[in-house]
Design a protein that fits this description.
Number of helices: 7
Number of domains: 3
CATH architecture of the largest domain: 2-Layer Sandwich
CATH superfamily of the largest domain: RutC-like
Oligomer: single chain
Strand order of the largest sheet: 1-2-3-6-4-5
């Protein structure tokens, strides 16, 4: 895993990049674009983000790659969405989770080189070597409460997967649920997800799906939940491993939620590791270090490290990190911890309340680890 930084001083843009590019194999990149506020209103900041993205794609290290999906973190989704030209694309998610560096917008890009990228059935697919990676971002509904909206989103997503001959239980690897007013609306989302999963054959005796459920405001004011997803077709069940780290974390179903702590998918040349939203929790389900942002951050990192270790990986393989904070006043403290521990890993720190009020911080990440798995097709 190679990591590097690109600065465009005239734009006031800084791009953190991770690259996994084995010789003569598919290359993949995660890039997070940050911009200096410069006292500009949103259109000016968005214009600079777009220019930085354009220049990134022209760089020799990135040239030839294509964007698979992107996520905009914005400070006012309802008023800013009309300015974002690609916001309705199935490869794009836009969510009000303000970046805490003082800007109005940050951007996470996932790119690949050597895959066939296309749009099918209102999804984005990336295909290579018999695998089809299916992404569908920015899904939302406006009717009913958070439970009703969640059920509609999952039902529509299952219909979309069926067009690929895929199912939620067999093919979905990762989900993101962004919940408006998470302290009151999260319970409805959890209830509907659990009921839907039971109907799909997903229980504590089978498996769930790696996920983040976090506070975030969709642009549509009547939308209480926004859903983003990643599914995989063409793999064998044995390629998927679910991560538990039982010495550090308890099974999620013990406190009524239905997601996996992490999922590792093995390929011939690499393992793709998706760590769900992880906070300061112990293996009994207790929130640790209530009110102490430093100790919660350290325990959260310890938990993520344990999950990565279970996947025969570590932070050296982490390609990107998203950090969610409940209290904007904790930003500088958390930034200093991450700057010291992980200075080279692309990341964004946003304002987004975690699903339990006593959790001050949560993080998620993606890792890509080199493998030589004989008998498995390369990624």
């Amino acid at each position: 895993m190679k990591k590097f930084n690109i600065q465009f001083e005239d734009l006031g843009a800084d791009i953190e990049v991770s690259e996994f590019a084995p010789k003569d194999k598919v290359a993949e990149y995660h890039a997070i674009i940050h911009i200096e506020p410069k006292g500009e209103i949103f259109p000016g900041q968005y214009s600079r983000i777009c220019k930085a993205e354009e220049l990134l794609l022209q760089r020799p290290e990135i040239s030839g790659s294509e964007i698979v999906f992107k996520r905009y973190f914005v400070s006012d989704s309802t008023n800013q969405k009309p300015w974002i030209k690609d916001s309705d694309s199935p490869k794009v998610s836009l969510i009000q989770q303000p970046p805490l560096d003082g800007s109005k917008i940050a951007l996470w890009l996932y790119l690949a080189k050597g895959m066939e990228i296309s749009a099918q059935h209102n999804c984005v697919t990336a295909s290579h070597n018999g695998y089809t990676h299916i992404y569908k971002m920015g899904m939302q509904s406006t009717e009913g409460d958070s439970a009703a909206q969640t059920e509609k989103l999952l039902s529509d997503y299952e219909d979309a997967l069926s067009k690929f001959g895929a199912t939620l239980a067999d093919n979905c690897i990762r989900t993101w649920f962004f919940v408006r007013d998470v302290d009151t609306q999260y319970a409805g989302m959890v209830k509907a997800r659990r009921e839907n999963f039971i109907n799909q054959g997903l229980t504590e005796k089978t498996h769930y799906i790696a996920s983040t459920g976090i506070g975030g405001l969709p642009a549509e004011t009547k939308a209480l939940v926004q859903l983003g997803t990643y599914a995989l077709k063409g793999h064998e069940t044995s390629q998927v491993k679910y991560l538990y780290a039982p010495e550090y974390l308890n099974p999620t179903y013990e406190y009524g939620v239905t997601f996996e702590r992490g999922t590792c998918v093995e390929f011939g040349d690499r393992a793709e590791i998706y760590i769900s939203g992880t906070a300061s929790i112990d293996n009994k389900g207790n929130v640790l270090y209530i009110g102490d942002i430093k100790r919660q951050t350290e325990r959260m990192i310890e938990n993520v490290n344990a999950l990565l270790k279970e996947a025969d990986s570590g932070f050296n393989d982490v390609a990107q990190i998203i950090v969610y904070l409940r209290d904007i006043a904790d930003y500088q403290t958390v930034k200093e911890i991450f700057d010291k521990r992980f200075p080279d890993i692309p990341r964004v720190i946003t304002l987004a309340p975690v699903c339990r009020p006593t959790w001050l911080i949560e993080m998620e990440c993606v890792a890509v680890a080199e493998r030589k798995n004989e008998g498995l097709k390369d990624w």
